[in-house]
Amino acid sequence: MKLFFSHFLRLIILLVLVAAGTFILLSFSPVDPIRAYIGNDLLHVPPEQYARIAERWGLDQPLWERFGHWFWRLLQGDMGYSMLFNMPVASVIRERFATSFALLAGAWLLSGVLGVTLGFLAGRFLHRWPDKMICRISYLLSSLPTFWIAMLLLALFAIRWPVLPVCCAWDPGNNAGTALLSERLRHLALPVCALSLLGMGQIALHTREKIASVMKSEFIRFARAQGDKGWSLLRHQVLRHAITPALCLQFASLGELMGGGVTGRKSLCVSGAGTGHYRCRPAWRCPATHGDRFILYAISVCRKYDFSLACGGA
Q1: What's the half-sphere exposure (Cβ side, CA atoms, 13 Å) at 170?
Q2: Are residues 54 and 172 in the same domain?
Q3: For this UniProt entry, which segments traverse the membrane (predicted)?
């Protein structure tokens, strides 16, 4: 319990620092949010109208005062109002997060399962043909960018052999309320596979090294001397000691997966939180960017503490 409260206090402090850092860094962006919002009509806007927009958005206030107002509203669950989407930022994130969560969760779980399985097979058959083949595939996947993998899968399974849809989270003409579960799963197949390959190679290689080192350890020799062999030895002795580094790398790859997910979803035209953030790029100081960046950083911070608490470490 003491460890839990210690981690919880550190998590709260870190989230406050993340909120402050997110707001301050985006506030120093060289992009003027008013100019980005007005766009090509800037020449038709008089200076007094420009000043009224700045006053309405609170950009005429000092930085510390703007952060205080924004952070106080954030504690109340109000992330502001997005002029780009013409709706509250919390509603924008909530609407787009469902697709992003299904995509990231599926890719994260699939990369972990495939990585651990391939690493286990490579370590079990060390320096034999399964090990050599798995190592070559893992090195290749670790060096390929996400968007290239996404375009290759798209060219093969959506154009060359049209068994999966080309883009989007559901069929054209449907929406989040009318799309069927089978339809959503078909549209998620290619993005999930593309993102899962992003971290699968590294997990497989690390698991292979750990399996190989455990197989050469003294307690494995002692277990074999006691008559323990076959699947019982692998399940109770080898896999138990090799799974912890794989889980550590799996949780650490979540941030990379969220970052690579933006380019992967953009290549496959899957609408989600990353696509919404991509549309907010020109106005880096808009409320949608603040809220989106804070949510992503908070998820990255929380996954570290979740794994640390699960392992009982500091």
Answers
A1: 14
A2: no
A3: 7-28, 101-126, 138-159
Burial class (CB in 10 A: 0-12, 13-18, 19+), 115: buried
Confidence (pLDDT) at 85: 66
Q: Of the candidates 84, 103, 134, which is a domain's last residue?
A: 84
Distance (Å, whole) CA 263 – CA 170: 19
CA distance 266 to 260: 10
Average pLDDT over residues 186-198: 83
Please tell me whether residue 116 adopts helix, strand or coil conformation: helix
Structural domain that includes position 262: 95-279
| Domain-embedded: residue 89 | no
Query: Are 127 and 274 within one domain?
Result: yes
Q: What is the mean pLDDT of residues 95-122?
A: 83
pTM to 2 decimal places? 0.69
Residues 196 and 153 in one domain: yes
Mean pLDDT of the chain: 76
Q: Residue 127: which CATH number?
A: 1.10.3720.10
On whether the CB atoms of residues 150 and 267 are closer than 8 A, the answer is yes
- Mean predicted confidence (pLDDT) in 194-200: 84
Assigned domain for 258 exists: yes
Backbone φ and ψ for 79, nearest 5 degrees, come out as -95, 5
Q: Does 23 map to a domain?
A: yes
**Of the candidates 240, 225, 264, the residue with the CA atom closest to the CA atom of residue 100:** 264
Full DSSP string of 268-287:
HT--SHHHHHHHTTT-TTSH
Summarised one tens digit per residue, pLDDT across range 156-172 is: 888 888 888 877 777 77
Question: In angstroms, rounded to a whole number, what is the distance separating the alpha carbons of residues 76 and 173?
Answer: 36
Give just the sign of the alpha carbon dihedral 33, 39, 42, 48.
negative
The highest-confidence range among 26-40, 161-175, 211-225, 295-309, by mean pLDDT, is: 211-225
In contact, 73 and 59? CB cutoff 8 Å: no
Residues 35 and 65 in one domain: yes
